[in-house]
Design brief:
489 residues, alpha+beta, 21 strands, 38% helix
Length: 489
């Protein structure tokens, strides 16, 4: 009799231990994961039943919560007068009862929701005072004038614009076109919100892509010649006055393929052209030959120093731009022109110009200006500028700046001229698909002697200009408008 009782007691003890252990795992080890699960509607109801913190642009909310008389108590709303929701949607993202969160609504969720550890003392105060907790206010670095200049410049064409403060890394503009409105997706009507989200994802123009930092990356075309020129100058074997071969057509080794210049003729006179003049005129044959002379290792290393190959957060996640490895000579020649398998985000090309503008020092791009208590306005966090890398020397930066000023003064970038201001730039016209119009690129900074803003613009498939597009003609005026918006303030 005692043996069956002991066996039963042992089984009961084991079952109790398993039950106790499983509940402990759920309560203590899986609690946060379960809480963060997008399918946990209880957490969503809890978050929407308190005032979510605003996302601010120059002190004005572009994402904020409005009290409503329904289960969720607060309605998330986007946009403001002069700050259209569709212009800022790639930055703010959305907060939805059916589709979760994207953009800053996702990356800064704990701050906006008021659950972050940085708000610990505020939460204690709320408990003692019996008040409902509220989220923090997140102020972003975007300059509203530059943002609207970029948006208006694109004018509905597919593409993107990024502007940076070269000295701090602050993102002054980040526009992705076409835009989209987050408000329908934030609706508390579940069917309506789901339908709006599905329509956004199904749109063949892919407005949900943030083309400035992700989506389908672009071949940067001749804007990449800045990286090739930097590699040449950093090698110590070239100066801006170095003579390069500049034939009308360059025969590529190991193949019957050739590379030609956009105008069809030779660069320079007597069959050669200086490195400086080659950049000013955007000579393909000389840069293709230069890339092969520099070699794979030097080209890859220089691209990596500028940030190619690295994904990082601003805090939005930036897709890694890429430079191919293990290329043969013809592939390397094409890569030196920003073609073949070279792919870049507009932010990456803005970083290249930003590093040149800042004397060779590349600052970490940053989208958050400061975080404050939404009620007391007490400062919670203020990110400090930090260095991303040192891709080039100050001497190389100075030489490249002078060459880029020549691009605007007398070369392919005259459309970006600003009266009374020296502008430094590089144009790009990138082939990307058989029979398709080229992407139009432009990257620049100004003023050249004391840079306040660095810009990169891409207009997909030539935009309204189609096959007649060039970087200077299509993207140059957009960059000019953005730079002017920053400088004139």
């Amino acid at each position: 009799m005692n043996h069956p009782l002991k066996h039963l007691a042992l089984v009961g003890f084991v079952m109790f231990a398993l039950l106790f252990g499983s509940t402990s795992v759920v309560q203590y080890f899986q609690a946060q994961a379960l809480r963060d699960n997008e399918l946990n509607t209880r957490t969503l109801v809890e978050e929407l039943s308190r005032e979510r913190g605003p996302i601010l642009v120059d002190g004005t909310p572009v994402a904020y919560s409005v009290p409503v008389d329904d289960t969720y108590e607060y309605q998330r709303t986007y946009g403001a007068e002069g700050l259209p929701a569709e212009v800022y949607a790639p930055i703010t993202g959305f907060f939805s009862i059916v589709s979760g969160a994207t953009g800053l609504e996702k990356t800064e969720n704990s701050l906006l929701a008021g659950t972050d550890d940085a708000l610990f003392y505020d939460k204690i105060s709320n408990i003692l005072n019996g008040t409902q907790p509220a989220g923090a206010a997140v102020e972003i670095t975007v300059d509203p004038e530059a943002q609207m200049a970029a948006w208006n410049g694109l004018g509905g064409q597919k593409g993107a614009v990024v502007a940076l403060d070269p000295k701090t890394g602050d993102v002054l503009a980040m526009v992705s076109s076409p835009g989209w409105d987050p408000n329908p997706i934030a609706s508390h009507d579940r069917d309506s919100a789901l339908n709006a989200y599905e329509n956004l994802i199904a749109d063949e123009d892919n407005p949900a892509y943030n083309r400035a930092i992700g989506g389908n990356l672009y071949p940067p075309g001749s804007t990449f010649k800045l990286v090739t020129a930097a590699a040449a100058l950093e090698s110590g074997e070239y100066t801006p006055e170095s003579e390069l071969p500049g034939p009308a057509t360059l025969d590529l080794p190991e193949t019957t393929a050739t590379i030609s210049n956009s105008g069809g003729g030779a660069c320079g006179s007597g069959g050669t052209v200086t490195l400086a003049q080659s950049l000013i005129d955007s000579c393909n044959t000389s840069f293709a030959d230069l890339g092969m002379s520099l070699g794979q290792d030097a080209m890859s290393a220089q691209a990596q120093e500028f940030g190619f190959g690295e994904s990082f957060d601003i805090p939005l996640t930036v897709s890694a731009s890429s430079f191919p490895s293990d290329t043969n000579a013809p592939q390397l020649a094409q890569s030196a022109l920003g073609q073949y398998e070279v792919r870049a985000t507009p932010l990456q090309m803005a970083m290249v110009s930003s590093a040149i503008a800042n004397g060779g020092t590349l600052m970490q791009p940053q989208l958050i200006d400061q975080v404050r208590n939404a009620r007391t306005l007490d400062l919670i966090d203020e990110p400090s500028p930090s260095q991303f890398s040192q891709p080039i020397s100050s001497d190389t930066a100075a030489a490249l700046t002078e060459m880029m000023v020549g691009v605007v003064d007398e070369g392919t970038g005259t459309a970006a001229q600003i009266p009374g201001v020296d502008v430094a730039a590089k144009t790009g016209t990138a082939q990307h698909a058989q029979g398709a119009a080229p992407h139009a690129w432009f990257t620049s900074f100004a003023p050249a002697d004391d840079p306040q803003v660095a810009v990169a613009v891409v207009v997909e498939s030539g935009g309204n200009a189609g096959s007649q597009a060039s970087g200077g003609r299509v993207a140059g005026p957009i960059a000019q408008a953005v730079m002017e918006a920053v400088i004139s303030e």
